[in-house]
Write a structure and sequence with these properties.
It is a single chain. By secondary structure, the protein is an alpha/beta fold. It folds into two domains: about 160 residues, HUPs (Rossmann fold, 3-Layer(aba) Sandwich); about 110 residues, Glutamyl-tRNA Synthetase, Domain 3 (Glutamyl-tRNA Synthetase, domain 3), CATH 3.90.800.10. The protein is built from eleven helices and twelve strands. The strands form five sheets. Strands 1-2-3 form a three-stranded parallel sheet, with helices on one face. The longest helix has 15 residues. The protein starts with 5 loop residues before the first strand and ends in a 23-residue tail after the last helix. Bound molecules: glutamic acid. Glutamic acid binds next to loops.
Length: about 325
């Protein structure tokens, strides 16, 4: 840990960042900077919903709350060769096999009683070379990692011990696009990332990513999965909830500094209405004291006294939601 390591924020440019994404970015920055690490930005733009204007906007919004990054952003779309090389190296070790299953077939397949939900049942695992060749002619396969299905638990800085069971997960999709788990592991490994801070919806991907990092010979990072932001109804926060992205808030007279103050307050690092700098937040930051519950976002209450959102209170009723489902 320390001078040579790095943390990162890795948004997918498929929309605007909302307050929950900005809070995760702030936490990733705080974890990295307070442990002497570099902080890197990676644009996860392999998805066909990615758009350059979302990427530009996301970078502007991160700057508006003051977050700085070391070096230029790394773009996954420019790194396809690195992902293919990784799969080739696994293929040479017979750790990769083609899979012809449809989603429906995977859902309907019988599976072991304790298999985790969504785990691949192994249907194409032991096809003969002749069958593989014949079926490859009909349909381009996805390529899966051959695992032993074993346990792969890990210790998370915020979640404690997370149990996990491996399955044969996809590395390359049938359309040739590298899968999220492959790209993240290759990037984290090659970018020298030794600390991963991200939303806790990704905690269940971590056993797979750790296993793949080990196979590819990368040092396995440490992990902190942070609670998500929810709307007043207890669903994951989304742009359509209104007054939750910087562009929506700017229209209500609320700028980056106020947003930083509200994010800091939600983390127990600032008083309501207090103007804070990142340096102050860094000096107050203590991972052990971070809230472990989802953050319920009610913009009218958060910004009501500061912007023109006060009048929205009546439109955003809702109670406190303690738990996140799923
Ligand atoms: N690109 C992912 C997202 O925006 C985050 C991936 C990661 O941090 O590993 O949810």
């Amino acid at each position: 840990m320390g001078a040579t390591g790095a943390g990162r924020f890795a948004p997918s440019p498929s929309g605007e960042l909302h307050l929950g994404n900005l809070r995760t970015a702030l936490l990733a920055w705080l974890f990295a900077r307070t442990s002497g690490r570099r902080f890197l930005l990676r644009i996860e733009d392999l998805d066909d919903r990615s758009r350059p204007h979302h990427e530009r906007r996301q970078i502007e919004d991160l700057a508006a709350i003051g977050l700085d990054f070391d070096g230029p952003a790394v773009r996954q779309s420019e790194r396809r060769a690195a992902y293919t090389d990784a799969v080739d190296s696994l293929r040479r070790r017979d750790l990769v096999y083609p899979c012809f299953c449809t989603r429906q077939e995977i859902r309907d397949a019988p599976r072991a009683p304790h298999a985790p939900p969504g785990a691949y049942p192994g249907t194409c695992r032991n096809l003969s070379a002749a069958t593989q060749a014949r079926r490859c002619r009909d349909k381009p396969p996805a390529w899966r990692l051959r695992t032993d299905g074993g346990e792969q638990g890990y210790d998370d800085a915020l979640l404690g011990h997370v149990a996990g069971v491996l399955d044969d997960f996809v590395l390359l999709r049938g359309d040739g696009v590298p899968a999220y788990n492959l790209a993240v592991v290759v990037d984290d490994g090659q970018m020298g990332i030794d600390q991963v801070v991200r939303g806790d919806d990704l905690a269940s991907s971590t056993p797979r990513q750790r296993h793949l990092a080990e196979l590819l010979g990368y040092a396995v990072p440490e992990y902190a999965h942070v609670p998500l932001a929810l709307n007043a109804a207890g669903a994951r926060l989304a742009k359509r909830d209104g007054a939750v992205t910087l562009s929506q808030l700017v229209g209500d007279g609320i700028g980056g500094e106020m947003v930083l103050g509200v994010l800091a307050q939600s983390l127990g690092l600032a008083e309501p209405g207090e103007a804070v700098s990142l340096a102050q937040l860094a000096s107050r930051f203590d991972p052990a004291r971070l809230p472990r519950q989802p953050w319920v976002v009610q913009p009218a209450e958060l910004f009501g006294a500061q912007g023109r959102l006060g009048g929205l209170c009546a439109e955003h009723p809702g109670g406190f939601v303690e738990h996140l489902d799923g």
